[in-house]
Design brief:
The chain is α/β, with parallel strands linked by helices and 387 residues long. 40% of the residues lie in helices and 16% in strands. The strands form five sheets. Strands 10-1-11-12 form a four-stranded mixed sheet, covered by helices on one side. Strands 2-5-6 form a three-stranded parallel sheet, covered by helices on one side. The protein has a three-stranded parallel sheet with strand order 7-8-9.
């Protein structure tokens, strides 16, 4: 791949990528600052197709958000409310959460995703009991739960080490960790936007410990606010180093700052082009992460489709209108729900191959040769294509 114009520094980076050599933090910043969007897309898509071909993963999942009340006050957050604002929030009982699980008893979901605010009464023992009862109700469900921010608080209050607390939850039924709460690792930026919650080293240590216990996890970044390109690369460098050590991360999920209804509403949002560039650099830089995910409720469906040409090979899941985190911040998808058919067609419409996965990326159903038809009860049925 020869560059027009002869920028030798960029050409060296391109050659590294094509020769499967790791790029440096300086290279990563240069890609952000100097590389054209077409070049970034071409490099990221080359890596994506080399690893995954046209395969694009999704899963069938739902969320439980126990509360949006929180002891922490993050300036970018449109979702949480302080305890003194409890009239504007919600707190679910354990039985209400179990009722959500029961409502999916006859539906082909494979994952429940549990994240929310941080409340003292929703402590380690409370969530361990919830996990045990979910496991009893739905032993087939993979339980992905609790950001490192939630875990740090509940484990600290229980006077346990991170290893003890995570092992306690794992025994109760916790299977893996989501990637939330990472925000941005640079200490000065983190102090400015979310200084009262767990620091960067703690986030990384909790995920390291989960990996050592045999649990996989995801990782995120919150981008498009007051950070610089160097801060984004520093964030990815810390994740790449931990992945070298443990190999426990499944996927990286860039999350865009949305500016409605929060303390940072004065900041403009970055453009859709910047979103795509950020996905591409993430795919190029994180050479040891198997997957890059675009969270479609945040991006909207059309931009999620475009991201599949910029290194992304996963679009999350059906969601079933069970999360409010981004809709409350002004995301395009105010009622985030897609059926399996919707997701399959969204992926097919950009000439990619839709594959349903479980949480750990084992293939469940390859929809390449499956069409949908209306069943006798009016519901849509997936049927194999017969030549």
């Amino acid at each position: 791949m020869q560059l027009a114009g002869g920028d030798m520094n960029l050409q060296k980076i391109v050659n590294k990528v094509l020769q499967h050599e790791r790029i440096s933090p300086e290279d990563g910043v240069m890609l952000y600052e100097k590389a054209g969007t077409g070049l970034l897309g071409a490099l990221a898509n080359h890596i994506r197709e080399e690893r995954h071909g046209d395969t694009t993963y999704f899963n069938r999942n739902f969320h439980i958000e126990p509360t949006n009340l929180c002891v922490f006050s993050c300036k970018f957050c449109s979702y949480s409310r302080l305890i003194k604002q409890q009239d504007e929030g919600w707190v679910m009982t354990k039985e209400q959460m179990l009722d959500i699980v029961r409502s999916y008893a006859d539906k082909p979901v494979t994952e429940v995703h549990i994240v929310g605010g941080v409340l003292p009464q929703m402590n380690l023992a409370f969530f361990a009991d919830l996990l045990r009862e979910i496991r009893q109700l739905a032993p087939q469900l993979h339980i992905k739960g609790y950001t490192a921010v939630e875990l740090e608080y509940m484990i600290r209050k229980a006077k346990m080490s991170y290893r003890e607390g995570l092992a306690f939850l794992q025994e109760a039924g916790l299977d893996s960790l989501p990637g939330g709460g990472a925000e941005i690792f640079d200490e000065e930026i983190r102090a400015e936007i979310c200084g009262d919650k767990c620091d960067s080293n703690t986030w990384l240590e909790i995920h390291r410990t989960a990996h050592e216990l045999g649990m996989h996890s995801n990782a995120t970044i919150l981008y498009g606010h007051i950070e610089t390109y160097a801060h984004r690369i520093d964030h990815m460098e810390r994740l790449r180093s931990l992945q070298d050590e443990t190999g426990g991360f499944n996927t990286f999920i860039p999350l865009k700052f949305r500016n409605q209804n929060n303390q940072m509403s004065h900041l403009p949002e970055v453009s859709a082009v910047e979103d795509l560039r950020n996905y591409a650099v993430s795919r190029i830089y994180l050479d040891n992460f198997p997957h890059i995910k675009a969270y479609w409720p945040m991006l909207g469906r059309q931009l999620a489709q475009l991201s599949l040409d910029f290194g992304v090979n996963d679009v999350d899941g059906t969601i079933d209108d069970s999360t409010k985190i981004y809709s409350m911040a002004g995301a395009e998808e105010q009622s985030p729900v897609m059926s399996t058919r919707d997701l399959v067609e969204m992926i097919r419409n950009v000439r990619r191959k839709p594959v349903e996965r479980d949480t750990l990326y084992h293939t469940l159903t390859d929809y390449t040769d499956i069409e949908f038809a209306e069943g006798p009860d009016g519901a849509m049925m997936a049927l194999p294509v017969v030549d």
